[in-house]
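ok so for the tutorial part 2 we go from a plain amino acid sequence to predicted structure tokens. step 1 is just haveing the sequence, like this:
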Amino acid sequence: MAHSVIPAPRPELPPVHGAVICVSAPCLVISPEHGQLTGRGIDGIYRSGRRLLSRCVLRVAGREPVAVQGRSLGADRASFTAAVRTGGEAGPDPDIGVERVRYADGTERITLRSFTARPARLPVEILLGTDLAELAAVAAGRSGPELPAGVHAGGLRWSTGEAQAVTVAEPGPDDVLASAGLLRWQLDLGPGESRTIELRTTHARTSRAPAGQVANPLSDARAECDDPRAEDWFRTSVEDLGALLLRDHEQPADAFAAAGVPWRLGLAPAESLWAARMALPLGTGLAAATLRTLARTQAGGRGPDAGKIPGPLRSAGPQLPPGCTGTEATLAFPAVLAEARRWGMPEGDVVRLLPAAEQCLDWLRGALGEDGFLADPDPGPRRCETQAHAHRAALLGADLLDACGRPGAQEWRDRAEALRARFRDRFWIDGPDGGRPAAALHPDGRPLPRLTGAAAHLLDSGLLGGGLPAPGLLDGVRTEQLVRLLAAPAMDSGWGLRSMASREPGHNPFGHRSGAVRAYESAIAVAGLAQAGFAKEAAALLRGLLDAAESFGFRLPEMYAAEQRTAGSAPLPHPAACRPAAVSAAAGVHVLAALAGIRPDAPAGTVALVPLAGAPLGALRLSGLRVAGEPFALRISRLGLGMVEEAADALQLGG
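step 2 — the prediction. this is what the tokens look like for a chain of 655 residues:
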């Protein structure tokens, strides 16, 4: 008798929605809200994907402090406040306050403060331990047991054949018990006095600033707004984006934005490139470095993949097979280079990157199917957003070729025009309500009639010379219909744009491609609506996204559940979402720049402002931006009038 084999269950990612995360790539600290690292779950201090410390339990006078508050102080640090009642005073009041400030680089400062009226002598213990496990093993539930510790220069040391970690303390402990992983002090505190213990956990005792860390080059940017939440969101977005910057191992001078923490602290070609694109108002340096990094990975030779940027497959939800992030990155490459040039990327950088952009276009030419559409993957469905990416690559690629005196520009304009005609004929599903774009075409040509957030990419055609919007894949009537669909409650949850309409079969408010809000798509929609002149709809989506950002402490996760907004409700965190994530952090920059309507054309020496009508957040000032390589600042009045306050002398200002 045959027996069916039940497949082993896939390990689930540990939930991180309640964790307090500090990051300064490649350093990462994941803490519970109470601040005690207990050695269980995913909590710990990590460096380059390895857990250096998994246990850090504090006891004061033989007791664990009672947690009061855990909160983020910035992208790379967090504070945990607790209290201890030692029993020295009558009554229920705590007599010792404890504040722990934990930094992404593995430093922790523990300050104990006496609230008593008499001197106190406090025994303090810190229990330390680690398994030196890789983050991937921890996430899969395959981390090993804690390793034995050895005494090392006033602290503890753990090692395996391939890794080591050291924790040292200042002041040095009175007693170190390696067998128990214990550091002990006897601290004398007078009334109102405080004492601080500093722990430093590193690969080696002398390491203070991990070599892979990148100073945040974006930190000068500021926002001031009548709605102060916009200021907090912009500041947090800039901090988080800077904290995710990683150096390229091949060329350490080049930095790119890692996809997100804790699960994807590394290069993700499409997301790293989209984050760089959305951060262009902060300067072109990140885009240039990301493009150089990806160009070094580009496939050579003469095969069908020649010119393609490699990238892993990414799940597309239950309706479609996984898509190829390499396809998305390859199509984005020439478009991002063209836009970065408009923002003022130095011509030398553009010229050096131009051959890689031409190779991306060469790959696109060969990858287009007989029906004129691009399959993703091949053979596979013709996705709606993939055609939008291909169209943008063709139009902006033609603009780039023309500007740089290279042949082929007219060919790509013709291809873009032909793609528009085919798309309007094959991808639009007519209906009594005005119709909708198909989510995809099956290989046999049948449309998939799902309304998804990916349709927002149809509004994102990019800007051409003079800051003029490029023509989109849809005509004016169908663009208006798409806007109505995106603005309706089935798509606009009140907290952002759903990844699939709530009325579609298979909708799941937690589904990362079947209903959850993806901050990146919502930001693309806001900017696309603003560029197309739909101010009311852009403002409504922008307010919902800002409200969601406030609910998450202005650090938007890459996705969150999209139950319909009601009075007193809040967006629900997705337990496995990265937070911070590069595209979510960059979204805060992208939507506020779209609100200001910055239209740069640095090669032509012009920049214009086309603010969103109605000034939905009131007066807004953005400073520390960069256009043509020079500082750029602007102000939008409460009446929606834009004024440039600071710009390069060579720029002619328009409105």
